[in-house]
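Worked example 2:
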Amino acid sequence: MDEFKSKITDLLKEDARRSPELIATMLGESEAEVAKAIKELEDEHVIVKYATVINWAKVDSERVTALIEVQITPERGRGFDAIAERIYLYPEVRSVYLMSGSYDLLVEIEGKTLKEVASFVSNKLSPIDRVLSTRTNFILKKYKQDGIVFEDHEDDHRMLISP
């Protein structure tokens, strides 16, 4: 990817609502060139989706998010890809990452209740052939996501004491 497209992706990552006109102004380029580059990035699946980050703690919506560490035996000829594909096709699954370290895949899922998440793990994930073990971690509170801090920063109101 050239430097021009890289700058565009950086600007859109910060704020996907930026228009080609605004990006052109920020980069000192023509709007037509920016629009063309964005279209190419979309066609090449570099830009896959424009998304909104929501602080669900401020919304009247019950959600349970879990990160599941999964140890698997890789499949001959396809490695981890076939099992990862089988897992990411479930609608509950938000993300799947191949990891280094003590487990192979990190699976992020979302459900309405703890019971729903537990049911997914025990009835869908664990029975998959080649899954050796799982370890479920529930997200209790999000402080920061995608570079966005959710908590309001409180100033330190303690008095300064000097010797």
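The mean pLDDT is 91. The chain has two domains: 3-43, 58-141.
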